[in-house]
Design brief:
The structure is a homotetramer of 301-residue chains. With 301 residues, chain A is α+β, with helices and mostly antiparallel strands. Chain A folds into 3 domains: 1-133 and 202-261, Gyrase A, domain 2, CATH 3.30.1360; 135-201; 264-301, no CATH class. Chain A is 48% helix and 16% strand. Chain A is built from 14 helices and 9 strands. Chain A has helices at residues 5-15, 27-30, 54-65, 75-84, 89-92, 104-110, 157-182, 192-195, 213-223, 230-246, 248-259, 266-276, 283-286, 290-300, and strands at residues 19-21, 37-39, 43-51, 95-103, 117-120, 141-143, 151-154, 204-212, 262-264. In chain A, the strands form 2 sheets. A 5-stranded antiparallel sheet of chain A has the order 2-3-4-8-5. A two-stranded antiparallel ribbon of chain A has the order 6-7. In chain A, a hairpin with a 7-residue loop joins β6 and β7 (151-154). In chain A, α3 (54-65) crosses α4 and α4 runs parallel beside α11. The longest helix of chain A has 26 residues, at 157-182. The radius of gyration of chain A is 24 Å and the shape is flat. Chain A starts with a helix and ends with a helix. At the A-D interface, α6, β6, β7, α7 and α8 of A face α6, β6, β7, α7 and α8 of D. β9 of chain B pairs antiparallel with β9 of chain D, so a sheet runs across the interface.
Chain lengths: 301, 301, 301, 301
Amino acid sequence: MPLTPDQQAEIDAARSTPRQTLRAVSEGMEARLYHAHPVLDHGFVRVIDYMGDDAAICQAARVSYGRGTKAVSNDEGLIRYLMRHWHSTPFEMCEVKLHVKLPVFVARQWIRHRTANVNEYSARYSILDREFYIPEPDALNAQSVVNNQGRGEALSGEEAARVLDWLKADAGRAYDHYEAMISQEGQQGLARELARMNLPANIYTQWYWKVDLHNLFHFLRLRADAHAQYEIRVYAEAICEMVRDWVPAAYGAFEDYRLGGAVLSAKGLACVKRMIAGEEVTQETSGMSKGEWREFMGVVG
Amino acid sequence: MPLTPDQQAEIDAARSTPRQTLRAVSEGMEARLYHAHPVLDHGFVRVIDYMGDDAAICQAARVSYGRGTKAVSNDEGLIRYLMRHWHSTPFEMCEVKLHVKLPVFVARQWIRHRTANVNEYSARYSILDREFYIPEPDALNAQSVVNNQGRGEALSGEEAARVLDWLKADAGRAYDHYEAMISQEGQQGLARELARMNLPANIYTQWYWKVDLHNLFHFLRLRADAHAQYEIRVYAEAICEMVRDWVPAAYGAFEDYRLGGAVLSAKGLACVKRMIAGEEVTQETSGMSKGEWREFMGVVG
Amino acid sequence: MPLTPDQQAEIDAARSTPRQTLRAVSEGMEARLYHAHPVLDHGFVRVIDYMGDDAAICQAARVSYGRGTKAVSNDEGLIRYLMRHWHSTPFEMCEVKLHVKLPVFVARQWIRHRTANVNEYSARYSILDREFYIPEPDALNAQSVVNNQGRGEALSGEEAARVLDWLKADAGRAYDHYEAMISQEGQQGLARELARMNLPANIYTQWYWKVDLHNLFHFLRLRADAHAQYEIRVYAEAICEMVRDWVPAAYGAFEDYRLGGAVLSAKGLACVKRMIAGEEVTQETSGMSKGEWREFMGVVG
Amino acid sequence: MPLTPDQQAEIDAARSTPRQTLRAVSEGMEARLYHAHPVLDHGFVRVIDYMGDDAAICQAARVSYGRGTKAVSNDEGLIRYLMRHWHSTPFEMCEVKLHVKLPVFVARQWIRHRTANVNEYSARYSILDREFYIPEPDALNAQSVVNNQGRGEALSGEEAARVLDWLKADAGRAYDHYEAMISQEGQQGLARELARMNLPANIYTQWYWKVDLHNLFHFLRLRADAHAQYEIRVYAEAICEMVRDWVPAAYGAFEDYRLGGAVLSAKGLACVKRMIAGEEVTQETSGMSKGEWREFMGVVG
């Protein structure tokens, strides 16, 4: 586990001093605050702060829609209605701040989600720790033979061992040289902003990441998806669990309409109607390309 | 004051039930939560929720800069350093959610600040109230003769009276017809989404507005400025008071470096150096245009 | 038509002077440049500038995916693949700048799309023209009895006439007083930034609006939809025609996957599979609420 | 130089086929289109497309400010006025698309500017080239002794040689193993999305980066600044040259008001006024901290 005794003591201290507030409180999220949820071999996600709850989503929606929304009898129904009709602004009224420790190559994917606030540990100012992501054997996969950006089956024993040896040895040596370059013992010592360039993409970094619930759902839909790279998916899955505890109704709607749902094209929709009417539809009669048909059958087949 | 007994009862209820939290708490902001701060004749601003405090800004900065920031002895010094050097991300780690009631023409200026979340009362769904902004006599000014987008002195008695009569009569008549058009008594009743087009820009609307502290400071710098239109400036000034109570150190730095500070151009800086050296600099010898020189003298003169 | 002879002369001049460029050129868009496409009674949309074409989308995608995309045999196939898999960044590589004249109540909906650049005509600086949107008889509808934010059938003769009289008379009187208030003949003249508050929401404003293709598609999906208010939908439809001429392959994919497609929830997907298998599914056995089932049947029924 | 004969042929082809357009054309930018401007040892910046010119900035401003801006006699004066008064939206009306090849650790700083569109070469799909940034001797500096995030003087001979040896050897070995791990000769071959984690931060990546002129100026102010890391500053400086050719008036205003200008705090402004009045002001009598006074004297001293 990635926490030092100092870090654990800090978390314990933060959790030992409840204070009074008049703000919306989510009990499910209070239980999670500050605890580090371990991810990969040295990473973690932990909730530092949050704003709002399921009721806050509805309150914001009722500002917008006033009497119009009273027909929906309860908060859960309203939240499902909002999600189904792509009303994004009420979900933007909730916000969460996470502390994440993650390998640099995962951070590089993650940061592509631009509608969020980030404070990353700076390797210009500070010295990075000697911590590298080394995959577990079952996460050490061959290149997929059908998907240019995917993985196939796990590597076999000897090849796997060779890969692990290289990953460990190269990371260790790179870090040794990083330390030696910045050392000021008997030499000037290379600038940290330069020395960091020697470090590989599996070194761990950390950041504070703050995002609203609408944009978080967008992130989770893409990154908790089966096609996402495993190393970012495990972070997304950990965050899914937190969101479920934080805003259970919104998370339920998200699961039904986004994670578990699917988009059909106009062509796909026409095929579905013909299939429901009992017609036998094939790729040739569907109007779709082979790739598209394969994906379509994956959804409705 | 704009609150009905129902609204006041709702605020009293929300304020009567403190709960426990492990999150960062700002006592100054807790004292303000839900209270409606009146602005203009029927408007208000009230804090619905907030995330973070001065310490949270420093905590985020220390994630980024690690040991590098320990030289700054205390939180206030660190916050001043961050503000001075345009480090925006630590300030983005605080967030506030406001409920604002404001005239439509003010809302139209306000919404130009895009980096925020908004849920506005919908006049497609719901019926707007009969409430219009009518300026106080000392806010009823003539067009400025020097500034195309400013105001000059207050209008004199008879002209002022005529203006007020028109504003009141036109708003009242427009609302009467709005009500008559949507009425379903003895007629079909015009769609609300159409009827609203008859209403003037001084009618009040309301929204939930959520923004991070960095972008809020940007809004306040522009809208609490002496050149901002009076009717939005009074909202900005009310929010300034709230932010001062919420994050006093950050607000202090903002006042010193942004609200009270000034930007000098390369030309202006060169003039300042010559003036400090005792030289008499005039517009002719400054290299500036007349307009620019006038503004420059307004800053350093 | 909303153009004065001066404006038409300006457009003719702009169109009479082609210049050479090395940039990507879309012939379909060149044919549209500067022409004003009329919308509603006094509004228009016209293209001022654009960046990129279908090939530019593919070029950007090939930077990202390199050899991985060569399997897709042609640009149209690649664009369909990108749209189907929610790859948004290649579409962001195209940009368009429009000049739009539109009623204020439409502008207020439009501006909610935040990821765009806007320069609006300023009624603080300048004087608005006497131009108001007055609906055609077939766009003068009653409030919907089934949808809180929709319209029902057209108003009948006498009620319609009364509504039109009010809209015209109130707008005319409001503008007369606006003019009288800012007049400097024999009086000081009210500041323009104040006088504008007397003007109703059907007065026309205008702006330059610049947006990338990904965000434009998002706007069009919501605003060219049958549930959008008619007065903004006609703008969206006019823009759809322009986009079709600009990037025909991207627009085709957008039509198939977004405009003509549909999202099914996990529950909906399960029902579709049962229905394809020959089962008779009803609302009661679907696990959906009544409202959700009605919408679902609207999609697949 | 980083271009292969194939790449040069592609550029030559793109530059050999001018086409006609009715859009705004910047001759200065046409001369630059597609040419690769070399940066660092293997990097480059080249302009792929642009939208707008100095006149387009003014045209957008005149939509907003109408008659109000006619007092400013010419485009250059108007642009200086807009820059001085922080009118950002007219500058947003210009857009540029760049193709950049850059080391990963530079890309990680660059991407922090969120208001831009990016398509980066994907190391999940594709194989990275064997190209690493190795600093020139005069860019191989020691850690600054006064600034936690800066560099001091160049390293002396033997230490410099050792650093260069390590950087080259570690990069070469990491790439050898990367190649060996993904090889499918006699083994399964590790997935590319995993193998990339072995590569150091000085490997080159590339992307298409599209940004509006306002946000580009913000990027350039921070990254062409003397405090920016040298390796990103050289990119910013190369882009400055391009912008100067593209929109000379806007770039001139940017140089005067942003790059060459300075922000004074309220305290600093008070000191300047006392100094102009002939008073001897010291840190003790300034009300500033030592660090702040040192920075202040750096500006006005």
